[in-house]
Amino acid sequence: MEARGFRPALGLAVVLLWVSTMPAQFIPVAHPTQTAVLPQPRGPIAVVAGSQATPVAAPGRQHGGLARRHQPGAPCVVQSENFIVFASTADWAKQVAQVAEEQRRDLALYWLGQELPAWPQRCPLHVQDAENLGAGGETRFALSRGIPGDWMMSVQGTRERILDSVLPHEITHTIFATHFGRTNKYVPRWADEGAATTVEHEEEKKKHRHFLKQFLQTGRGLAFNEMFRLKEYPSDILPLYAQGHSAVQFLLDQAGPRQFVQFLETGMQTGNWPAALVQHYEYESIGDFQLTWNQWLKDGSPADILAYSPLLRRQNQPGVALASSGVGPTDNLQLVASNPSDSWYKRKLHSTSGASATPIPPHNHFSGDPGRTASHSSTATAQQTHIQSPGEKILR
Length: 396
What we know:
8-stranded mixed beta sheet, 14 helices, 45% helix, alpha/beta, single chain, 396 residues
């Protein structure tokens, strides 16, 4: 197991000032009170109801955290095959559980080409939604002998933004943790956060691109050789999100998600990232990769990346790289790229089923008091002093 550092605290004043303009902030959120272990057999989504917190035993399946049966004033609790959702209403908790399972399946197919098996431990998923509440989230887990466990996920924001940005971001973290956990290593920060931000709503991605320009123009960018070595969040964390997002998207546009995963596998197994870049993208070095990426940005990030990709230039056939990585011209990647104005999960559901996406209810039905947003921001900032348990990893 490897202990990982906690995200450095952002000033409360900065959080309150930028909450409506910055990309989704993946920071801790307050967890509902938890009192009783509640493992349950696998099965369809079900509401856990009752007046008392009563442990229920189930052989062969564990719950990765604590839960309780619903009481007046307490969060509603709904469980699915891989999640236990705590939310303000039963219907909302059921919808979050359903979308979380769908995204876990679809994002695993997108990144890995196959679904994940059910986790031995369900992941507690704590949801705080309110109108005008800034989007954000956190995922915690411990890695032991190549197996992630002791999950804990928190998400916040409007209902729409939770479903189309925060959930896919956090679920991508869990997919990477499960897939790469077998190496008993953690995914590099830039790649983990960069990949997670590429499946957010286009409005969130626009914010990353906007702030990236500011960071680079003010000297806050990271040299790629430094970025590749990072195992913890840097003190100046926001450039990592913006730069990681851009660098990962740049690689995805060249060869698709599955080749990106193979690139990470090679780099994590060997520790030789320059060689991994040569093998999977044909850049001569990390410096060559950075210079080419910089030129691409300077040229306005054109959609036609043939001039910036040694891999595609050698093949000289745009689209061949996508097919070679298992993503063909009519597969998921091009469907995602074809309609950037919509959210990832809506596009994915439509592309696989042909049906409309899971409807999103109005996101102004939060049952908390009017001062919830301000008090939440204060609580979230204070909680960033959380002392991490040995072996625990925290992702935003």
